[in-house]
Amino acid sequence: MDEPKQLHIAVFPWLAFGHLIPNLKLSILIAQRGHKISFISTPRNIQRLPKIPPHLALNINLVSFPLPHVEHLPPDAEATSDLPTGKIPYLKIAFDGLENSLAQFLQSSSPDWIISDFAPYWLPSIAANLKIPFAHFSIFNAWSSTFIRPGSIEDQRIKAEDFTVPPKWVPFPSKVAYRLYEAKKFLTHFEGNASGVSDVQRVVAIFENCVVIAVRSCMELEGDYINLLGELYEKPAVPVGILPPSADEDGENNDNEGWLTIKEWLDKQNKGTVVYVAFGSELTLTQDELTELAMGLELSGLPFFWVMRKISNSVEGVPLELPEEFEERNKGRGVVWTSWAPQVRIIGHESVGGFLTHCGFSSVSEALAFGRPLIMLPFALDQGLVARAIGEKGVGMEVPREENDGSYTRKSLAESLRLVVCYRH
Ligand SMILES: O=c1ccn([C@@H]2O[C@H](COP(=O)(O)OP(=O)(O)O[C@H]3O[C@H](CO)[C@@H](O)[C@H](O)[C@H]3O)[C@@H](O)[C@H]2O)c(=O)[nH]1
């Protein structure tokens, strides 16, 4: 039999580690099959990526495009994790400024395929001009992608209430839906932002114009929704697997020193007792949310490891405060970690008994890969839907929230944590 042709594939992820890491993982899997990858990002992001296995280094070419200068964007900000949430639209402006660099690269290197993320709404016309087919790698699950109906962005009649029931535009096979306070937030992604193009416009442009949708998911988890996604956009929707991480693939350069300090603390805790708390790479809390979270952890009486990103611990530049003497009171029992954490290695440690998560899909899949139960506190984007769908599967429970504004209390948080972590003992 003939050897299959070696393909050259350009992979172009959005500038967020929740996207860069799974795109690199997919690139590694494709390279393992003998194909050649050009993985395109910015200089600082490339430096912070997990290491590529040495035997694949020749097959994966890391291509750096410096971001153009954009007003309001700090010069070293190249990923959403470098910014408070309110500044992310400026990162999108800088990202859109890569259009010419990407077009030139594609023209000169003529890849056989492009794998693109949701953000470059301008890519379809470049790909069409150069006659290069492009696939969309959706790191969002199919539950949430089927919620965005093609054409819904032009529909002025769309209301938050429409998202609180399973969508009417597809035969949605479950009761998974947003709560009203989540739906109101979700609708803001239909509105414009400083980048001039809403997130939904970006997603839909990519879904509508790609040749194939590759979903980071599997049929066992959401087969009906993956099929629905294909029907909705009238093209193949292919699950490529959840792409569970291995413990040495946690991004930001595998900071070993940090890990050794963390491991020393985790090693001292009893098996299955620690609550790992982390809300992904881009979420910003309000002061009330932060206070109730801190006090809930304290009230639970459980050991905790809390990744509290300093950068997002501020709303529009106003720093948030931990409750007075919180760290002193919880010394020894809890750790507040303010830099990038080696999440996958932490979740994999046997002392972790539960993961308090915002339900970013990477965090959820990492927890599932290590069999850690989830205590779910979704905030934005797809997170409410992920929480509901995971709740249906019975591997996590949601922290109860006020129905009208979505607020939560220290008491409800502490009770949920104890219910999940202590139930296992
Ligand atoms: O200190 C940190 C912080 C994050 N991570 C990693 O960064 C990723 C974070 O991804 P995710 O859990 O999905 O959260 P977000 O960064 O919030 O991801 C965005 O993208 C997700 C799709 O993956 C959506 O589900 C979320 O709603 C959206 O906020 C995970 O791999 C984490 O392991 C670390 O390793 N260390």
UniProtKB/TrEMBL annotation:
GO molecular function terms listed in the Swiss-Prot or TrEMBL record: anthocyanidin 3-O-glucosyltransferase activity
A Pfam family this chain is assigned to: UDPGT
Pathway: Pigment biosynthesis; anthocyanin biosynthesis
Record keywords: Glycosyltransferase, Transferase
Superkingdom per UniProt: Eukaryota
EC number: 2.4.1.-
Catalyzed reactions: an anthocyanidin + UDP-alpha-D-glucose + H(+) = an anthocyanidin 3-O-beta-D-glucoside + UDP
Family the UniProt entry places it in: Belongs to the UDP-glycosyltransferase family.
Name of the protein in question: Glycosyltransferase
Native organism: Erythroxylum novogranatense
